[in-house]
Amino acid sequence: MDVTIRPMKPDDWPAVRDIYRLGMAAGTATFEVEPPSWADWNADHHDRCRLVAEVAGRLVGWLALKPISKRAAYRGVAEGSIYVHPEVRRQGIAAGLIRTAVGDAEAAGIYSVQASVFPENLASLELLQRHGFRRIGYREKVARRDGIWKDNVLLERRSQLPEFL
């Protein structure tokens, strides 16, 4: 499968939103139940760390980073989200997005990319760990999804570039 990874453009939003909605419907990817508006999503995410994956001109996945805090001390720390269309999962698309995002994040001065993953989402946990993320914590009953308390595994990938050590 020939996959193209490129920066996300504003006109990608409808396809990004649709893939996000599919992830929400699965119930194992996010606490969110409805995608935000483009304006809200755009305001929340880093400008330079937004990627999409295309196969034969069709957008099939995306990855984006957002700041974890507005405080200056945390400027180099971001939370990552990654979603791939169910029809093309487990075909290397997420891996390609992560590999590209690591370089983009470091170029943007981001030294720590964090992720919160439901513990039952084994595919995501395994994927992230294969790409250098390590478990740094566990939050019990952190929020409800469909009325059920859910836990989160916290993971982090720290840059190994000398300027970030």
TrEMBL record:
Pfam family, one: Acetyltransf_1
UniProt GO molecular function: acyltransferase activity, transferring groups other than amino-acyl groups
Domain of life: Bacteria
Keyword NADP: no
Xref: InterPro entries: Acyl_CoA_acyltransferase (IPR016181), Bact_Acetyltransf (IPR050832), GNAT_dom (IPR000182)
Entry keyword set: Acyltransferase, Transferase
Residues of the N-acetyltransferase domain: 3-154
CDD domains named among the record's database cross-references: NAT_SF (cd04301)
Protein name in the entry: Phosphinothricin acetyltransferase
Species in which this protein is naturally found: Neolewinella xylanilytica
Organism taxonomic ancestry: Bacteria, Pseudomonadati, Bacteroidota, Saprospiria, Saprospirales
